[in-house]
Design brief:
mainly alpha; DNA polymerase, domain 1; 6 helices
């Protein structure tokens, strides 16, 4: 009955050795991977620390640059304020230099025009021959009649204001009264003097 004990003991020892080997292999697999993951985790932590250090340095550089930019902006704002003040001073000086100059008084005071006294018809039904006044032709004589002027003494009595009115109202012949000296000629003709020869002023 106990003849095969040696064989059984041998098998037990073989099984024990195999179990130990399997245990060692399993331990190596479990603990070896844990060490590898710890190593990996350590290297990841080192990389994160290095990245954090790099970012801190970069942040410091950015803060220095921002400080420099803030200083430059403050300097530029100061320059801008000074330029605005200089511009305002220049505008004030320009306003003084280009101050409006009062218009000089006219050498001749303009005459306010006023219409001379006119007639509705010639006195006694007979008008003077206004064509004797140099510068008055048949058309102008007709125009004078339409305005109510038929006689030399009417024209001779015109004032400067009345001359200005007639000069403005002689349609197509403006300015002829003063240019051709109608008033002086009418005075001469009313006083019985002969009309002026052509070309005489």
């Amino acid at each position: 009955m106990f003849q095969n004990w040696g064989f059984l003991l041998g098998e037990i020892w073989v099984l024990l050795v195999l179990a130990a080997l399997v245990g060692l292999f399993a331990g190596w697999l479990i603990f070896g991977r844990r060490e590898a993951s710890v190593t990996v985790d350590t290297s990841a932590a080192d990389a994160a620390t290095a990245e954090a250090a790099r970012l801190r340095v970069s942040l410091g550089d950015c803060e220095k640059a921002r400080g420099s930019a803030d200083g430059r902006i403050a300097a530029l704002e100061g320059d801008l304020a000074k330029a605005k003040a200089d511009l305002a001073a220049c505008n004030a000086r320009a306003a003084e230099v280009v101050a409006p100059v009062a218009a000089p008084a006219p050498l001749l005071t303009p005459v306010a025009a006023s219409k001379p006294v006119s007639l509705t018809a010639a006195r006694g039904g007979k008008a003077d021959d206004l064509k004797l006044i140099k510068g008055i032709g048949p058309v102008l004589e007709e125009l004078c009649h339409k305005l109510g002027y038929y006689h030399f003494d009417q024209i001779a009595a015109w004032t400067d204001a009345e001359i200005a009115w007639v000069d403005e109202n002689l349609e197509g012949f403006r300015g002829r009264v003063s240019r051709d000296e109608w008033v002086q000629q009418a005075r001469d003709l009313a006083a019985g003097k002969p009309p002026r020869p052509d070309g005489e002023h």
